[in-house]
């Protein structure tokens, strides 16, 4: 397995929407009372020999980025880490010192995943 991570391009929209529908039931996610179309956000794709195996979408704000979605289609294979690393590296290159993520309080796998990668719990 040789995973390539690259930025989402406009021509990826169809497969981005398909992944979001399959994993989240819709590209639109409710965030702070407003619907956000994750399929229109910047982010990164993980590809294995051209086949989509993961994706991260980001809300880019002036002082911080927020991870809206992070999906690995091959769980426990390092794909989530590769996508997160690409996002952190890009944020650092932009001079940002903060990336945040929200998750439900019952998603213990997500808590462990992010904490093992240096994220801190701010609020429950």
Give the gist of this structure.
By secondary structure, this protein is an alpha+beta fold. The protein has helices at 13-24, 79-93, 108-116, and strands at 3-7, 28-31, 34-37, 43-48, 51-60, 65-72, 99-101.
Number of domains: 1
Q: So what's the oligomer here? A: single chain
Number of helices: 3
Name of the CATH first level:
Alpha Beta
The largest sheet is: 5 strands, mixed
Low-confidence residue ranges: none
CATH topology: Aminopeptidase
Q: Write down the overall mean pLDDT.
A: 92
The shape, in one word, is globular
Count the strands? 7
Order of helices and strands: EHEEEEEHEH
CATH superfamily: Gcn5-related N-acetyltransferase (GNAT)
| N- and C-termini, Cα separation | 37 Å
Instruction: Note the beta-strand portion.
Output: 25-35%
Report helical residue fraction. Answer: 25-40%
Structural class by SSE content? alpha+beta
The CATH architecture can be given as 3-Layer(aba) Sandwich
Tag the structure with descriptive keywords.
3 helices, two-stranded antiparallel sheet, 5-stranded mixed sheet, 124 residues, alpha+beta, Aminopeptidase
Structure description:
The strands form 2 sheets. Strands 1-4-5-6-7 form a 5-stranded mixed beta sheet, with helices on both faces. The protein has a two-stranded antiparallel sheet with strand order 2-3. It has helices at about 15-25, 80-95, 110-115; strands spanning about 5, 30, 35, 45-50, 50-60, 65-70, 100. The termini are far apart. The mean pLDDT is about 90. With about 120 residues, it is of the alpha+beta class. It has a single domain (about 5-115), classed as Gcn5-related N-acetyltransferase (GNAT) (Aminopeptidase, 3-Layer(aba) Sandwich), CATH 3.40.630. A hairpin with a 2-residue loop joins strand 4 and strand 5. It has 3 helices and 7 strands; from the N terminus they run E-H-E-E-E-E-E-H-E-H.
């Amino acid at each position: 397995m040789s995973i390539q991570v690259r930025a989402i391009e406009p021509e990826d929209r169809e497969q981005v929407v398909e992944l979001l529908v399959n994993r989240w039931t819709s590209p639109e996610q409710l965030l702070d009372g407003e619907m956000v179309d994750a399929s229109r956000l910047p982010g990164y794709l993980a590809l294995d020999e051209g086949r989509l195996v993961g994706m991260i979408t980001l809300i880019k704000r002036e002082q911080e980025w927020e991870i809206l979605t992070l999906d690995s289609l091959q769980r426990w294979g390092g794909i989530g880490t590769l996508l997160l690393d690409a996002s952190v590296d890009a944020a650092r290159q932009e001079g940002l010192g903060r990336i945040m993520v929200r998750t439900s309080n019952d998603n213990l796998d997500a808590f462990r995943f992010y904490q093992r990668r240096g994220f801190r719990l701010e609020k429950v």
